[in-house]
């Protein structure tokens, strides 16, 4: 009997035979009492009674897949004699149960350096039906186009694997809609939330926003020489960047609130006559493990200021001149130099 069979349906049963005659062969029937079944007797043209099994209530194969009843035939003799037969009722499955996932929602974490081919997780669904109605296949439901190429699900096992590399800086989480379909076409859905964990895979990037060069050698302490931005797209400690300057230079670096950095002149004043330029290396290091660093080379040219006086080669010259020396004769040549450059270093005499 199919579990979809409506109550009230009659199923004819085998009639009993009695070799006696008269009242000794008159038969009556009795059925084991059961809430789902009852016995009905149908009058045959010859006056005999045909026993019929009547379905009293709806069947549910998942609740009980079979029943065993006893039909008893009793004659009208004295003493009465009876015969019995067992009736086994097998309930045929109907696809009245959809698949059911173990959980409605799953959560899994993956490092962004997880290699393609790695197992994400295994989802599982069950179906209370039997046979092909209980055979489940898995697949993806409707999802954004950029999600589908990243993952694959095995149709038979529900094993989800990674197909393409992950990138935390591009996408930090995915939601997969998994579909389970039984052999009768009934569906169930669950969601798998994939959280992508950051890995320190990005080097800090240094961007020069502005640069003042050359810098006058008489610029006061605190003058801003360069403004630059340091950025690391990683998260948390992996994206926390510290900077330092290397090389001999009278400059320091000061962090500003927005993540930019100002390179400033230190207390030691500039002196073009000592160094006409300064080559610096700015190193930006993140807080990851292992630490990643980015570098930028900066050349600061020092602009001359007229901060040097001319200096004679001698502080005093003594010249002995004969009194008859002709007018216009050269008596002595004096020389002076100036450490400044260009017009600041050009010397005139008077």
Automatic annotation (TrEMBL):
The keyword Transmembrane helix applies. The keyword ATP-binding does not apply. Residues 16-101, 102-206, 207-312, 313-350 form the Cadherin domain. One of its GO terms (cellular component) is plasma membrane. It holds the Pfam family Cadherin. It comes from the Eukaryota. CDD domains: Cadherin_repeat. GO terms for molecular function: calcium ion binding. GO terms for biological process: homophilic cell adhesion via plasma membrane adhesion molecules. It is a single-pass type I membrane protein. It is found in: Cell membrane. Keywords: Calcium, Cell adhesion, Cell membrane, Glycoprotein, Membrane, Repeat, Signal, Transmembrane, Transmembrane helix. PANTHER family: CADHERIN-87A, PROTOCADHERIN GAMMA-B3-RELATED. This is PCDGE protein. It comes from Sapayoa aenigma. The lineage of its organism: Eukaryota, Metazoa, Chordata, Craniata, Vertebrata. The gene is Pcdhgb2.
């Amino acid at each position: 009997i199919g579990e979809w069979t409506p109550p009230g349906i009659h199923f004819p049963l085998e009639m009993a035979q009695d070799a006696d005659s008269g009242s000794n062969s008159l038969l009556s029937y009795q059925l084991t009492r059961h809430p789902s079944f009852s016995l009905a007797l149908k009058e045959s043209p010859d006056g005999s009674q045909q026993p019929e099994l009547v379905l009293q209530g709806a069947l549910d194969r998942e609740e009980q897949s079979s029943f065993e009843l006893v039909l008893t035939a009793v004659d009208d003799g004295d003493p009465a004699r009876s015969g019995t037969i067992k009736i086994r009722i097998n309930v045929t499955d109907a696809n009245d149960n959809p698949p059911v996932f173990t959980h409605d929602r799953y959560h899994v974490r993956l490092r962004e350096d997880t290699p393609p081919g790695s197992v994400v997780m295994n989802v599982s669904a069950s179906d209370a039906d039997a046979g092909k109605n209980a055979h489940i296949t898995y697949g993806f439901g409707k999802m954004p186009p950029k999600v589908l190429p990243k993952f694959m699900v095995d149709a038979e096992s529900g094993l989800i694997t990674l197909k393409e590399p992950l990138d935390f800086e591009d996408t930090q989480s995915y939601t997969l809609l998994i579909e389970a379909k039984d052999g009768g076409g009934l569906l169930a859905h669950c969601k798998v939330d994939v959280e992508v964990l950051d890995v320190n895979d990005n080097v800090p990037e240094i961007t020069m926003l502005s640069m003042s060069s050359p810098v006058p050698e008489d610029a006061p302490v605190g003058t801003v020489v360069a403004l630059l931005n340091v950025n690391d797209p990683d998260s948390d400690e992996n994206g926390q960047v510290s900077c330092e300057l290397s090389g001999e230079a009278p400059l320091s670096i000061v962090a500003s609130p927005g993540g930019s950095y100002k390179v400033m002149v230190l207390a030691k004043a500039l002196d073009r006559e000592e160094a006409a330029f300064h080559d610096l290396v700015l190193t930006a290091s993140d807080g990851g493990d292992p630490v990643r660093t980015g570098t930028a080379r900066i050349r600061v040219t020092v602009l001359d200021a007229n901060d040097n006086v001319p200096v004679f080669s001698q502080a005093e010259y003594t010249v002995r001149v004969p009194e008859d020396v002709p007018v216009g004769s050269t008596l002595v040549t004096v020389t002076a130099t100036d450490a400044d450059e260009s017009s600041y270093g050009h010397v005139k005499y008077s």
